[in-house]
Amino acid sequence: MKVVEEKIDIYAPREKVWNYLVDQKRAEDWDPGVDHVEYLSDKRKGEGTKTLYRTKRVFGKELEFVMDIKKWKENDEIEFVDKLEDEVFGFKKIYGDWILEKLDKGTEFTWEFGFVVDSLRKRFMWPLLKYGTSKTTREAIEGLKETVEEGEHDQEG
């Protein structure tokens, strides 16, 4: 499996960052690539939660995918599988992980994506996919940082 990993330090408590992540509708506020989020399951939190995401343009087209949460460790980690409606460079399934680690002055947030590169086409497209995924993930985590930290300052003032 090939992995794309992006990390960022967020100057807010881990529990606060967690709350922004698990209220998946809030992704519309902090992730500039997300256009729409809709819960597909009755569950809103925990393993088995399924959520439809519609992105803005990624690689020149809008994408829809279903995020299916596979592992949930409160205030610590969420593992998920994104199942894409349409193939992107031959990929229909992407594995993801959100990891939060407590720091002295906040939280280190890591977002990993895993791609099974099991064909010649996928190996050929991997550098472009890696670049695009890194770029959009970096923009998303910077948006998360800004949104969470602004909320933290609003509470202080």
TrEMBL record:
Which CDD domains does the annotation name?
Answer: SRPBCC
State the InterPro entries in the record. Polyketide_cyclase/dehydratase (IPR019587), START-like_dom_sf (IPR023393)
A family per Pfam: Polyketide_cyc2
Q: What is this protein called?
A: Polyketide cyclase
The organism's lineage is: Archaea, Methanobacteriati, Methanobacteriota, candidate division MSBL1
UniProt organism field: candidate division MSBL1 archaeon SCGC-AAA259A05
